[in-house]
């Protein structure tokens, strides 16, 4: 019995020792795992801090941008309000010269504005062109010795013109071509001249539902005076002013007068869009 008790006691002591050694190994393993978790946790915290700093910086930048965009413009109460002026334009006035015989001609254009396009080149010193003109309308420009079909210019006026549109014609955009084919010959343009007019203006006018069309006289010639040497015996200046309309309106029809060509003849056509150009 005593011997048996000793054997059992030995077994218990051995088991205790083994358990103690295994426990220490497990404890050390657990300790290493905890250390790894602490390191990972610290790294995650550092990453979160960096992310938070970046997010705060990004939000701050967004807020600054919003402030700049939404910030109302401040005006100096003592400074006067200056209206912004969008210049009106005179589009593609072309000048045909028809002398009875070949001759030198000087065409001077006294324009109340700025020439923005020209062909041949507008001579600033001369304020126009010096050409050799032929009965068929062609000209040789002395500045470059080149042949041209006509003198072309476009300009922007310095001042607004309140066009008198009390008389004219209201025409559907799609009907503009037929209207011009009928009205321009009555005014004195030849097929060559009015076809060139229509080729330029119809693509513009057809896009409007309706157009109020007026042919200006003195209002145009006063701000684009021509001085031609030698002086022509007859001169016709056809200048169309149009205003786009959404709906047709009633208006007194403009009278159209016939034109007779005599001797040295000068023909000009061009146009512009009537609009309010003062923007505040």
What would you note in describing this structure?
The radius of gyration is 45 Å and the shape is globular. It has helices at residues 2-70, 176-187, 191-205, 218-221, and strands spanning 84-85, 89-98, 103-111, 113-119, 128-133, 139-141, 146-148, 151-157, 167-172, 210-216, 224-229, 234-245, 252-253, 265-273, 278-279. It has 2 domains: 1-71; 84-279, no CATH class. The strands form 3 sheets. An 8-stranded mixed beta sheet has the order 4-8-2-14-12-10-9-13. With 280 residues, it is an alpha+beta fold. The chain is built from 4 helices and 15 strands.
Secondary structure class reads alpha+beta
Query: Uncertain spans, ≥5 residues at pLDDT below 50?
Result: 1-27, 68-86, 276-280
Mean pLDDT: 80
* Gyration radius, in Å: 45 Å
Order of helices and strands: HEEEEEEEEEHHEHEEEEE
Oligomer: single chain
- Bulk shape: globular
Q: How many domain modules?
A: 2
Query: How much of the polypeptide forms β-strand, as a percent range?
Result: 25-35%
Number of strands: 15
Into which percent range does the helicity of residues fall?
Answer: 25-40%
The helix tally amounts to: 4
Name the strands of the widest sheet in spatial order: 4-8-2-14-12-10-9-13
Distance from first to last alpha carbon: 120 Å
The major sheet is characterized as: 8 strands, mixed
